[in-house]
From TrEMBL:
It comes from the Bacteria. One of its GO terms (biological process) is 'de novo' NAD+ biosynthetic process from L-aspartate. It is found in: Cytoplasm. This is Quinolinate synthase. It catalyses: iminosuccinate + dihydroxyacetone phosphate = quinolinate + phosphate + 2 H2O + H(+). It comes from Malikia granosa.
Amino acid sequence: MDKVIEVDYEQPACTTRHAWARVPEEPSQQERAALKDKIRRLLKEKNAVLVSHYYVHPDLQDLAEETGGIVSDSLEMARFGRDHAAQTLVVSGVRFMGETAKILSPEKTILMPDLDANCSLDLGCPVDDFAAFCDQHPDRTVVVYANTSAAVKARSDWLVTSSCALEIVSALKDKGHKILWAPDKHLGGYIQRETGADMLMWQGSCIVHDEFKAFELEALIQQHPGAKVLVHPESPAEVVALADAVGSTSAILNAARTMDAKEFIVATDNGMMHKLRQLNPGKTFIEAPTAGNSATCKSCAHCPWMAMNSLAGVARVLETGLNEIHVDPELIPRARQPIDRMLAFTAAHKAGQDAGALVPNIGAA
Ligand code: SF4
């Protein structure tokens, strides 16, 4: 059963605390088994598939794979949901992932365990302010991260995820584009340093990755001199500078598999530890520090919104059809364009084709 907690904090606007207060209680072993059985049955009955992100509870990751769904990063979740034959997608993740699924598959029913599962990047980039920012810089190509609302996507030229942002921005730079980037300032800063592109930044951040601490990470590295450091680029620049490998969740998984080390220090949401340990049984994974001298009330390496997803929530929405994601039908064609551009670019890149040919020269768009 979900916790019911009265939230009366000094900062009532702190959505992070509200999210933590809504995190469901862990079911007992018996409840867990019963919920999994129920979900297996309902997925079949409702012609539905479970699509989970790497940051959600291990039960939801394992069940997605076991039932023919997927556990992945947001790019693969989007692609998988679009291409799967199921009529209903249950998206276990945060709101923008459900919205992206709806934009790509408007004819499908998209359900989410908790519609309030959000993202600080999405919340920190309201469309009216963002549109005004874009209007002030009409000479710039607007590139937004996947972690944004459908309305912000509809105001953009290109969508990127952390798996493909470097390649797409690099291709845009080569074709003469100046970029307006939103919303994550750390990911944007990393891409700017790597590509040398002219990028004007929105100042958003992820409350999870923003908390990783370079000072404490250096101390941890000294304690584990043989460990390789894997960092998600939503982390601050000082943390990224200490990395042996920087990349998306998929890139982190790949680095852990291929790098010659037995120990890894990992700076991303600790939901990733499940898949890292599952795929690399002989290796040790240590969470990068978020606490220490400069810890804040948000210091933990787990997203409170991702934590709102639960077996009980999945079973409930499959049973009732509640928590359906709706996107304004007028927005869908405009929001779909930047997503389709990204998917076409990444498909060409993966196939070894000249993905840069899909990027127009500036002035020729
Ligand atoms: S981990 Fe960060 S980027 Fe991911 S959903 Fe949570 S707040 Fe957003």
